[in-house]
Amino acid sequence: MTFFETAVRPVLFRVGGGDAEQAHEFTLKRLAGLSPAVRAVLRRRYAVSAPTEVFGVRFPNAVGLAAGMDKNGVALPSWPALGFGFVEVGTVTAKPQPGNDRPRLFRLRDSEAVINRMGFNNEGAAALAARLSALGPIGVPLGISLGKSKVTPLEEAVQDYLDSYELLHAYADYIAVNVSSPNTPGLRTLQDKSALASLLGALVGKVPVLVKIAPDLTEPAVAELLEVCLAYGAAGVIATNTTLSRDGLAAADQPRAGEAGGLSGRPLTERARKIVHFVHQETGGKLPIIGVGGIAGPDDAARMFDAGAALVQLYTGFIYRGPGLVRAAALTRT
Ligand SMILES: Cc1cc2nc3c(=O)[nH]c(=O)nc-3n(C[C@H](O)[C@H](O)[C@H](O)COP(=O)(O)O)c2cc1C
Predict the structure, then answer these.
(1) Which is the most buried residue in 1, 69, 234, 295, by most CB within 10 A?
(2) CATH code at 216?
């Protein structure tokens, strides 16, 4: 067990009487408050240099922070210090919104998993733009994940994404189009052929645009989506978001299985990797893939790369394993 697992994680898991979202907020606040000196110490401990170039962007290493961890970009300078070779902020929406009622984030510890139904709680695209403008570059590539505002009808989704895009693309090394969160009603229908074509038609151009997909799509549906991605010049695919499936949960976590929302972590490992493999095969490696889902150890990262991912991202594994996992995963590429 690492220092994180024996000393830090038990403390974090007790914050707020065990409430996962309070622990998340506490951690973000602490990370946002780190001094440059402490960040420098962390950087010496965790940073890995294993440069790679993907869709024309140079990454110091291939392991990134997945969307949803730092939705509003409040702790941006700290993520590279914890070893991350890139950071995806968001998902943000054109209009600020509170998200779903709490509780909306649950740990399933025996399964090394999480269920969330956050519902894109975020301060909005303009607030993020202001923060990024004040901050300047963070030293590693920055992805910005865009989603649809809850109040915007699906028929007006393109304009809603476009509003966020206009405010934010200047700060982004890539834009992630999130059409795969299970927590905004109807959002996943934007993965369908004609809706995605309209969306990509409007957004592709100035910076690389990647499409984040759900692990619950059938292979024919993924194949159809890939055709649109290729036809409309998407720079890549991010696979995958959380799943609606509840397969693979430990017995002790069954009582929580009924919580609505997306499941992430270990139960997702194999499904996400299969999707990455399918995308890689189907496109003959032509479309770069960011592999995400259930990477809980360096071997999972290595397998994700073997399946065809050019980059990987962590979320739930980072909650359970801490920054040692970032480093170990990045070292698999040296
Ligand atoms: C609490 C939580 C919030 C998330 N929020 C977002 C989000 O806003 N946008 C997004 O694209 N993915 C979001 N995700 C999905 C992750 O980015 C990732 O795709 C998914 O959790 C699978 O990776 P993992 O098993 O390493 O966690 C969220 C995941 C969690 C656990």
Answers:
(1) 295
(2) 3.20.20.70
